[in-house]
Amino acid sequence: MAGVDLSIILVSFNSREYLRGCLNSIYENTGHSIRYEIFVVDNNSQDQTLKMLQENYPEVRTLDNAENLGFAKANNQALRLAAGRYLLLLNSDTFVLGHALEKMVEYMDQHREAGALAPKLLNEDGQTTQTQGSSWAKRQWASPRARKVNFISGAAFLLRRETYKNVGGLDEHFFFYNEDWDWCKRILKNGWEIHYFPGAAVIHYGGKSTGFLGRRATVEGLRGGLYLAWKHYPLFFPLYRLGLIFFLLLLLLGNIWRAPLRRAAREKIAAYAQVIWIALRWYNEKYYV
User: Fold this and answer.
1) For the segment 167-187, what is each residue's pLDDT rounded down to a tens digit?
2) C-alpha–C-alpha distance, residues 234 and 255, integer Å
3) Contact between residue 198 and residue 146 where contact means Cβ atoms under 8 Å apart
4) What is d(CA 203, CA 139) in angstroms, rounded to the nearest whole number?
5) Does the chain have fewer CB atoms within 10 Å around its N or its C terminus?
6) What mean pLDDT is reported for the chain?
7) Range of 265's domain?
8) Burial bucket for residue 137 (CB in 10 Å: 0-12, 13-18, 19+)
9) GO molecular function, one example (predicted)?
10) How many CA atoms does the CB half-sphere of 279 hold within 13 Å?
11) Nearest Cα residue to 101 out of 6, 24, 180, 2
12) pLDDT for 107-130, tens place per residue?
């Protein structure tokens, strides 16, 4: 599509109704001052997501994966096809508020030094602000003014095309979690700034605390943390690795007595044991490749 200002990329995995709400919010709260295209990359959902898209949103460009490829690989599939001057990764469990996307594009047009941008992320109540990243940086997310930051969340991550060409896509060694942190590190390393722009707001339903996510999700999330530390913090990595092993051993022991009665406890034990094994053999087996 020629002359596209914004390419919006959503990855879905069994989130049909949230995805429907997100798409509706884009159409209802985005005017005609920008031209945009929408990609949905579906990671083998089992909730009739594709059927819903075909029947209700035929204009959306859909990529159908035969398996769950994770967040990084799925986004990269669409990034390679996107035509926009700006590229927006948007979680399927978000809701775009009044003209947020137009405001973000306008801001980036006026701030050429910014390679990436995040809007204000709001909790489900639409009032309280979510902290993106470490709680130590909570104060910066309460700022009423735009400011430079070192990290923004992948829940709503706007990237300049020139920055994408310079830095490349998401590191596919991450399944999900930590890939946004890695992207931010690479963006800053290549001389671009990252801005937080509270003048645009997006509700993120996924900001609520989550429980145990299942064996694969837990393993991949923790393995991603190991890979991030190994990649960007090599001096800190040995301490982080040992600390993680010790912490997971405590969690494993804490779940052993529940194992005979609860399937969830057995899943946790299996996940924690697998991550401990990965961490112990990190250098020998090169689990980061």
Assistant:
1) 999 999 998 889 999 999 999
2) 32
3) yes
4) 19
5) C
6) 89
7) 215-285
8) middle
9) transferase activity
10) 29
11) 6
12) 999 999 999 999 999 988 887 777
Instruction: State the residue for tokens 């990595």.
Output: 237
Pairing state between β 61-64 and 36-42: parallel
Boundary (domain end) residue, out of 160, 185, 207: 207
pLDDT > 80? residue 49:
yes
Could you tell me if residue 182 is inside a domain?
yes
What amino acid occupies position 268? K
The label of the residue with tokens 């596919």 reads 172
pLDDT for 142 equals: 75
Locate tokens 């909790």: which residue? 123
Q: Give the chain's end-to-end CA distance (angstroms, integer).
A: 35
| Number of domains observed in the structure of the chain | 2
The amino acid occupying position 124 is E
